[in-house]
Amino acid sequence: MRVRLNQVGHGFPSRPLLFDQITRDLEPGRVYALAGPSGSGKSTLLSLLAGWAKPVRGSITRRGQGTTQWVFQNPHGVARRTVLDHVTTPLVAAGLNRAAADAAGGELLAQFGLADLADQPFKSLSGGEAQRLMLARGMAAAPGLMLVDEPTAQLDRQSARAVTATLAALSGSGAIVVIASHDPETLAACTDRIDLAEHAPC
Amino acid sequence: MLTREVFREAGRNLASGTSRMLVLALVAGSVMAGLTAADGVGMVRIIQADRDFRLRAATTWIVKAQGQVDPAACEALRRLAGVPAAGARRPASQGLTVAQLPQNPITVYQVTPGFLALLPDLARTGGAGLVVSDQVAGALGWRLGDRIASADGQAGLAGQAGHAEVAGTYAYPDDGRAPGLGWAALEPVNARTAFDECWVDIAPDSPAVRALASTAIRLGQDQAASPEISQLNSTLGPPADQAKAFHARPTLSAPWLGAATAAVIAATAAWARRLELAAARHARVPRLASMIQFALEAGAWLALAGLACLPIVAHYAVEAGPGDGPAVAWALARVPLAVLAAGVLVAFLVAGLIREKRLFAYFKAR
Fold first, then answer.
1. Do A47 and B12 touch (CB under 8 A)?
2. Using the beta-carbon criterion (under 8 Å), do B1 and A92 form an inter-chain contact?
3. Do B186 and B303 lie in a common domain?
4. Could you tell me if B226 and B266 lie in one domain?
5. ipTM above 0.90, yes or no
6. At residue B155, does pLDDT exceed 60?
7. Does A92 touch chain B (CB under 8 A)?
8. Which residues of chain A have pLDDT under 70?
9. Contact A138/A71 with Cβ under 8 angstroms?
10. Contact status of A193 with chain B (Cβ, < 8 Å)
11. Which of the ends of chain A has fewer CB neighbours closer than 10 A, N or C?
12. What pTM does this model have?
């Protein structure tokens, strides 16, 4: 999937625009840091990229195959369902039978360092584990575009580093990964950067 | 998504407690049980009132026409639908005075054979003789088959001077029915001559059958005389249309009320899991699969709730009796069935209203 932002600007009715004139081509296999202070519109731009809202100015075009996955700031899972169940949901939804989904899910969990927790319920996970599980579930859906919103904001330093390492590894996934964050370590793990402060209307 | 995986996912949600099956079944079960019990009480009350009406002979009508009742025509009324019993009565030419109680003569009536079926707790020997009230039998210590000796040597039966047998007993409780048969003896006869009264049990009540009862009158010399028709027991009022009462009972809307409540519970359950459902849609679970899965989960906890109603349905079906029990059971079963249908349908529809595009909004509002 390729995504092109063409002079994109957005804001909410009767308020000044949050950002304007963003023109950028997003390439598969790259990890983009979406930087900016709180309230600069990082989550809003993610929702425009997801296609859940339309920009008030400019346009966003997508070409090619692939779904969009969004990983939120706070991991949200089904408290009593297992870790494995979470990653197999997109696989089963795609038509795999249970055995095939379990096998593929197990591999994904190993990739995200969660293999030992496969049978644990979601509610037993730490914040960092849960966030990595959300990333694994997102990847299980074979996305063309992966949107990650403040993935380390709620985590302690050690957990944040584990998640950041996982995010850095996504650069080889073939998906476009956009990470909204203001954590320097997370931003440093990215290959490209979109700074909303540069696009704030004067 | 494979169909069997939809069922399996629903099963996993139920088994893991994600569906909150027990809590929802408890809530839905309480509503179902309450409504079922309320409707059961309403139904059984109507049935018992109807039963009481019959037991106290309020369904028995007396057509009076002095010396004009055709016994064969009166007995023939039994062939009408809704006429369990009919028979004619007239006073015997003389009463019965027994040696033990000479100051209390027993009134004797001649009746057609069908008349006896109008009397409760009838016990008979099968032989000829007098059928006496249990009040008479109790006072005089008579049992079935005992010989009756009158003070004057006559025992009421023509041609059986001096003695007759107790051929039967019947009850005639003091429950509001017209007096006359409490201290009495009945002599069954196959007479063709006219009687004074035709008694007809009409249940369920039918004005048309009541009108037909007048056909037992043999118009004779006094053609202008119109028969007098009255209830044997008028203390309970005129007959009510029990079928109408059944269909107009206050709890008739219980299934609708249950369905509405189930709809609210199912919609609330779906809304409470909107983030999970939207996330599933985001994970590419097809909308229809998501809807079916949620409806299956709702069906499971609604079915569990429905099980709680079974003892209630059984209780009121038994209380209604073998005649009305099946109808009561079916009528009561409509409550859990309506709850199940409405709950599953609403769960299906509301799950379909959860949109992936609202995932971020649901997430922020969680």
1. no
2. yes
3. no
4. no
5. no
6. no
7. yes
8. 202
9. yes
10. no
11. C
12. 0.76
